[in-house]
Amino acid sequence: MRKYQQLALLLISCFSIGVLMMYKSENNRLKYVLKYVNFFGRNDAAVLRRLQNGTGIEDEDHLIKSAFSKPLPVWQLIGDSFHAYSAYWKRNELVAGGEAHVIVVGIKGAVVDFRCSFDVGGRSVQGKFRFQRDATEGVVDNNDATFTYYNFFCQVSRNFGEPEYVAFSDTRSTTKRQVKLRLRYVKPANANTNSNAIAKTTIKPHAHVRLPATMCVDLVSFNMSSPFGRNADAMLQFFLFHQALGVEHFLVYNYDELPEKVVRLLERTNLHLYGLPFNFPFQQTNTTTARIRQLMLTDCLLRNVNYAAFTMLLAPNEIVYPNARFASDTNRALQQQLRHYATETSRFELATFAVCFDERKKLLIDNVQYDPEVKPPHATLLYRLELPPAQLLLPTATSVELPLSSGFAHRYVDCQHVGKDGLHDWRNGVREDLMSHINTLRSEVDLLI
């Protein structure tokens, strides 16, 4: 009889332990759910506030996306010999009026003679036309160029509201037709404004904080048939490395050239791509690359000036490695470091290494050999967007060459013909703390690739 009692007691104990374990498991699940739902004893007013805040964030994201991509730039014919890409409205801060700034290319040697006006609420307001040729005209790649790059301006000296369109008519054209261009608003920046301060912009009431950095991507002049361009992992790493530095918004010129595989993989991340078409109306050659890059840079700066503290125009085979992320909670952020320079300094140049690209390497940063005799086709510049747009675009804008301890850039190239000095290891000139930071970025990208 005693044996049966012991067996019954054992069975009851096992059943009790099973029930206890099941209860503990269900209790943990319930706590997990309550942690995120907080259904019992909730404060409906607090819930409504959270919903309203969430809606505000969604509205802010939508407005930022619209701000970077609208109005969509596209080359369109104005007159008989000129094409316009994008148009920006800049209101004067100290005096009445403002002006439209339009990026234009025209047939080389064509006579510039236009009239301009603004469309404000359906009524036309006459403006005063002026233009500027590209500062490199007659200096860089001019011999074989079939086009000239211009900045068109249409000015008014009184306040009449925010115009929606600027219209141009070529007085020498036989059709005499007006072509309207949708305007994008640019709020003049304050050079004394702290880059972390609230940026009050004209078209995004919910988006109060400026983004630390954005990136403009040049797929116009980049050779997509190169070994780097055909390598999806290499193209992907361009975005992932810069995302690890704090860049989440990428404005891609000639977006259709971005491989579909790369786009699909990037859709799984939290970075944002903005596709900007570039149906350039003239033939592109090696001698016109610098001029086309300059007009892209002008659009990039004007498009970002209200929304980012910093921006850069890079090809996908160019990656920057600063000694800190663009923005963080610590004083080591690049944003904080650059405040030691005068506010008039708008451009920071990074030393650029021509690093040999080896497709067998999983990560780009593992390519360590560079050719010191290969010079980059253009300087790698980081732009601080705190100055008024007109000063940012001046060829004489103040620039500073950053020391190697502050960061550098890699331009991944094919080392088919190595210089007489041979290849060098770029790590030999990098400080230990900077190398440690780069290795941290490497580990983050290695987890994602």
Please give a quick description of this structure.
The protein is built from 9 helices and 19 strands.
Describe the model.
With 449 residues, the protein is an alpha/beta fold. The protein has 2 domains: 111 residues, Sandwich (Immunoglobulin-like); 238 residues, Spore Coat Polysaccharide Biosynthesis Protein SpsA, Chain A, CATH 3.90.550. The strands form 3 sheets. Strands 9, 10, 11, 12, 13, 14, 16, 17 and 18 form a 9-stranded mixed β-sheet that branches. β2 and β3 form a beta hairpin. It is globular and about 115 Å long.
Features:
Spore Coat Polysaccharide Biosynthesis Protein SpsA, Chain A; 449 residues; 29% strand; alpha/beta; 9-stranded mixed beta sheet
Topology, element by element:
Elements: H1 2-37, H2 44-69, E1 76-78, E2 82-91, E3 98-107, E4 114-120, E5 123-133, E6 147-156, E7 165-170, E8 178-186, E9 211-218, H3 227-230, H4 232-244, E10 249-253, H5 260-266, E11 272-276, H6 289-304, E12 308-314, E13 318-322, H7 334-337, E14 345-356, E15 369-370, E16 380-384, H8 389-392, E17 398-401, E18 407-413, E19 424-425, H9 432-448
Parallel strand pairs: 2-8, 9-10, 9-12, 10-11, 14-17, 14-18
Antiparallel strand pairs: 1-2, 2-3, 3-6, 4-5, 4-7, 5-6, 7-8, 12-16, 13-18, 14-16, 15-19
Helix pairs in contact: 4-5, 4-9
| Rg computed from alpha carbons, rounded to a whole number of angstroms | 28 Å
Query: How many separate structural domains?
Result: 2
Category from helices, strands and their pairing: alpha/beta
- Strand count, sense and closure of the main sheet? 9 strands, mixed
CATH topology of the largest domain: Spore Coat Polysaccharide Biosynthesis Protein SpsA, Chain A
CATH architecture term of the largest domain = Alpha-Beta Complex
CATH class annotation of the largest domain: Alpha Beta
Please state the average pLDDT score: 82
Share of residues in helices: 25-40%
Number of helical runs? Answer: 9
User: Could you tell me the strand content as a percent range?
Assistant: 25-35%
Count of DSSP strands:
19
Please tell me what the overall shape is.
globular
Family: Belongs to the glycosyltransferase 92 family.
EC number: 2.4.1.-
Protein name: Glycosyltransferase family 92 protein
Keywords: Glycosyltransferase, Membrane, Transferase, Transmembrane, Transmembrane helix
